[in-house]
């Protein structure tokens, strides 16, 4: 039977196509039981690579069946037909994804960004407390419900973090997701702590929320890594960001994994707290840590220069979702980075070409972590 007939027998009336890849597709459907629209991910076992079938798909299904958080896309039902088609019935993000939202409306006001970032951080804390890491956090994987609340989605790269005999989390070696959102230790091929890498991605997402652009130009990975390890962050003057917001981003995009914020520290940060006025007197000292004193100056001593042309790059979903691509995913011992450039799909570059920036002070001389 075709998809419409199979879904009809389960009480779903098939709707429009929401997305399609090499061996998976996502469609909308109306649930006669739930009385509202849902999203249906359809995966054909016959068309998927072996490593995805044996590793990524079982992880995703097991984790989706576990998660229950108001800021994570809800999974209502998972079933499989005798011919190997898997149907995952999920909550529908009716307002689209965060990237499209920012593309249409521009950078968010800090109050709106604070609310959404708090929701996203709460979802990540929930996952991390369960030793689940997402490993593909990006604006395209953050959906919005009818009230524009955050709904984290796409757990195709997620996994449970294994622990050693002493109870410590084990390191991971697999490169997952988009280079533009990946932590520097991942891009360098260093065995990494997945939870800490999720935190870096949160920093990239928050920067995009309040600036409407990417914090780093990923057209040259080697150059981007050098800038990241020097802890240099350019903030657009035109956005008039508060010191508290810059402080949070600065400590999320921390190249030293031992000093990068943990999820509990993010949620307790003064900027994230809804009623707190925050670091009105907070500064970034020479060690890159918060202290009390005069309001930090983020303006460099050198003359103002135009911002580097960055692309808020929406990588093709076929490159970051295992169920949406035809190539096999890397195994746990392989680093396979996707750094191909694409034309700017967001329409944000025009704003960036003439914008002035101010630069965060490096916390310390460049370091190489090995």
TrEMBL record:
Residues 337-346 have a biased composition (Polar residues). GO terms for cellular component: cytoplasm; motile cilium. It holds the Pfam family Pkinase. It is an enzyme of class 2 (transferase). It is found in: Cytoplasm. SUPFAM superfamilies: Protein kinase-like (PK-like) (SSF56112). Its EC number is 2.7.11.1. Its cofactor is Mg(2+). Residues 12-272 form the Protein kinase domain. One of its GO terms (molecular function) is magnesium ion binding. ATP binds at residue 41. Its main location: cytoplasm. GO terms for biological process: intracellular signal transduction; microtubule cytoskeleton organization; spermatid development. InterPro entries: Kinase-like_dom_sf (IPR011009), Prot_kinase_dom (IPR000719), Protein_kinase_ATP_BS (IPR017441), Ser/Thr_kinase_AS (IPR008271). Keywords: ATP-binding, Cytoplasm, Developmental protein, Differentiation, Kinase, Magnesium, Metal-binding, Nucleotide-binding, Phosphoprotein, Serine/threonine-protein kinase, Spermatogenesis, Transferase, Ubl conjugation. The keyword ATP-binding applies. The keyword Nucleotide-binding applies. It catalyses: L-threonyl-[protein] + ATP = O-phospho-L-threonyl-[protein] + ADP + H(+); L-seryl-[protein] + ATP = O-phospho-L-seryl-[protein] + ADP + H(+). Residues 285-370 are annotated as: Disordered. Residues 311-332 have a biased composition (Basic and acidic residues). SMART domains: S_TKc. Belongs to the protein kinase superfamily. CAMK Ser/Thr protein kinase family. This is non-specific serine/threonine protein kinase. It comes from Panthera leo (Lion). The lineage of its organism: Eukaryota, Metazoa, Chordata, Craniata, Vertebrata.
